[in-house]
Amino acid sequence: MIEMQDVKKTYPNGVTAISGIDVMIHAGEFVYVVGPSGAGKSTFIKMMYREEKPTNGKITINGVNLEKLKEKRVPHLRRDIGVVFQDFKLLTTLTVYENIAFALEVTGEHPRHIKKKVLDVLDLVQLKHKARHFPNELSGGEQQRVSIARSIVNNPAVVIADEPTGNLDPDTSWDIMNIFEEINNRGTTVVMATHNREIVNTMKKRVIAIEGGKIVRDQARGEYGLYD
């Protein structure tokens, strides 16, 4: 599903964030990406959905070589990739329903299919009763559930999450993680960067640890490690 071969990323200021990365993530896996602050985790994650381009090396996502992908095809790639952020990135002037429907409208989905798909994902995240509310009327946990619903409404092959529980209290974080596990159980590949030691150590998924821009540990049922 995701393959990186000898990937390096050096920014214009000369900082090398990622160097010599070789990794393969198979369809249906649930992978945590861990490491200290500044290790290169966010760059690693962003390159998967073409927010950042590698300086060198090859990245393949769901059979697509990102190096050869034309800019006009990037939106098509992202239909197969759901992205969840720490700060939700919801459109404040749209309702919950409209935020999720918008993700379908921009891909040209037929209007008669949109309602069913939106209500289905709202049911999954247990927010159907908040469909007509605006983001500022929701708790942080509810906003993150909307963000997750929006990321999966296109039924993507991969969901990439960057610190999705970073702004949430422990109980709400577990609610969010249960949703991610359900998404994974339905067959979607999940890759998540996180600093949440308790969640990683409890859920026992594959763990990829990055330090100094390099993968230093890759364990099938790994633990978080000694990071701040």
Automatic annotation (TrEMBL):
Function: Part of the ABC transporter FtsEX involved in cellular division.
Major localization class: membrane
Organism: Metabacillus lacus
Family membership: Belongs to the ABC transporter superfamily.
Keywords recorded for this protein, A-Z: ATP-binding, Cell cycle, Cell division, Cell membrane, Membrane, Nucleotide-binding, Transport
PANTHER family in alphabetical order: CELL DIVISION ATP-BINDING PROTEIN FTSE, IMPORT ATP-BINDING PROTEIN
GO cellular component, one term: plasma membrane
Protein name: Cell division ATP-binding protein FtsE
One Pfam short name: ABC_tran
Subcellular location: Cell membrane
Record text on subunit structure and interactions: Homodimer. Forms a membrane-associated complex with FtsX.
Domain ABC transporter: 2-227
Membrane topology: Peripheral membrane protein
GO molecular function annotations of the record: ATP binding; ATP hydrolysis activity; transmembrane transporter activity
Coiled coil start-end: none
Name of encoding gene: ftsE
Gene Ontology biological-process annotations: cell division
